[in-house]
Amino acid sequence: MTDYDILRVFCGPTGGHGNALGVVRDGSVLPERSDRQTLAAELGFSETVFVDDPERGVIDIYTPTLRLPFAGHPCVGTAWLLDVPELVTPAGVVGARLDGEFSWIEARAEWAPARTLRQYAGPTEVDALDVPPPGEWIYAWAWEDEAAGRIRARAFPGRDDGIDEDEATGAAAILLTDRLGRALNITQGRGSQILTAPQPHGWVEVGGRVFLERECSPSAGRSAGTPRPAR
Description:
Elements: E1 4-11, E2 19-24, H1 33-43, E3 48-53, E4 58-62, E5 67-68, H2 72-82, E6 86-88, E7 93-99, E8 102-108, E9 116-119, H3 123-127, E10 138-145, E11 150-156, H4 170-180, E12 184-188, E13 192-198, E14 203-217, E15 222-224
Parallel strand pairs: 2-3, 9-10, 11-12
Antiparallel strand pairs: 1-2, 1-14, 3-4, 4-5, 6-7, 7-8, 8-14, 10-11, 12-13, 13-14, 14-15
Helix pairs in contact: 2-4
């Protein structure tokens, strides 16, 4: 099997939670889209990234069932891993920066796949939601503290691919930030943290903590299981 890294993106303040991400640093080992899609399905992460040019930051993103022109948590995680000033995606060039414990990207809301942003009266209603049947991609959210920009959210991709709920989704956070027009501090899933801030001319920044969970090298029989903290 192909070598890949496992990251956790948008981790909580103590380093827990976060959305798992697979990153194949040498995309040349699987140049065909069909092979990449097959590996993404086998790995089973909500997204898997193939790096086609690590110096320029050229990447290719897949869910277990489809290819995406842009996605938030894959870009935040891969930008941190490669330590590059930008990423080149099919949707456009994504700005990237590291700021202390946070990895940030800058993207446009129109790059994000369509999402239904569904507001609820309060966090307890969001917490009580059952996973809906496959179909609509729903980002359920409620204010925890509107004055402070704090939000409770859960994400239901609505796909029949084994991913019932996304632990942390940067693209949906970008869409919500664009709609509300203000900086947000989002607690999603079991305790992941996503920070956002609107920027001039239709851009939105989204950031969070990234941890390297392990490096998987099946061909060499190596899988380092000790998490490494963000740089």
